[in-house]
Amino acid sequence: MPKDNVPNFVKRALREKQTQLVYNAAQIGCQNLRCPLQAGMAIPMMLGGRVLGVLTLYFTENWKLTPIEIQTGEGLGEILATQIVLGEKERQASLLRDAELKSLQAQISPHFFFNSINTIIVISRFDSEKARFLLRELSTFFRSNLLGANQSKIPLEQEEAHVKAYLNLEQTRFPDKYDVEFFSSVDDQVLVPPFAIQVLVENAIHHAFGNRKTGNIINIWITRSGRYLEIRVTDNGEGIDPNVIDKLGKEKINSKHGSGTALQNLNARLKGLYGDSAKVQIVTGKTGTSISFLIPYAQTEQKPNLKGVATDESTDC
């Protein structure tokens, strides 16, 4: 319904966060001289102090708007508010699964897996210690995906291990192609969404540099800004096509460089977890691209539980 056509009693329900009752067509805002509506009720659907929406019920005779109807309507509003919250939680879980599947499809696909194994086999012929290290990194990468699959937030330490394992494997396959640096000034137990940094780094690796073989720089900045944590990934690549920049992170795009699905999922997850202020911000030009977001600064109270999962120190490759 257009905003100008919203009845005044519905606006009051939104503003005052209380059920509003009206008992004639004029109060309802019905302009039809033969308006069949003679009573109405606007019930704000609340979650804590936040209004999720308004349930509006109308009656053809005002005497039908009884205390029982009011109580029933308010109960229905509570049920619908609960369903909205449950639906949003399910949507977030679905987005997380989509992000995990995207990571698995793009990174642990047979193509990625066999390329990594083949690289390790070649290196094992002349550098057994390096091959052992890469096997541990491949194990870390798989383990990070499993640990992050069913969590909405993980310690930064865990996300960094995931990203660095991926980078070690990629940089071994393409020596001297990428120069990647981490710059972190925060505690490694600060909480971040799983795969958030991974998505940005993967995006730079696959899309920023075109066919350029050397001189490709990626910097990962993790800093605190007051009550917020800022995560920023920059590159010195070719920049993003101006024709798609306004759509990137908001919808699927048609491009020879990719569909933008990973950034779209990340943007939606951030908004669902933290609100609109956490959306992905993109600055791009001919000298490179910077993609960043702010989230509330929060720390976990203890190290992640790795019980039952082999650590690098206990892995005998």
Could you describe the 3D structure shown?
With 317 residues, the chain is an alpha+beta fold. 42% of the residues lie in helices and 21% in strands. It has helices at 8-16, 25-28, 67-107, 110-124, 128-148, 156-173, 196-207, 261-274; strands spanning 20-22, 39-47, 50-59, 154-155, 178-184, 191-192, 216-225, 228-235, 281-285, 288-296. β2 and β3 form a beta hairpin. α3 packs antiparallel against α8. The longest helix has 41 residues, at 67-107. The protein starts with 7 loop residues before the first helix and ends in a 21-residue tail after the last strand.
What can be said about this structure in brief?
The protein is of the alpha+beta class and 317 residues long. It is built from 8 helices and 10 strands. It is elongated and about 90 Å long.
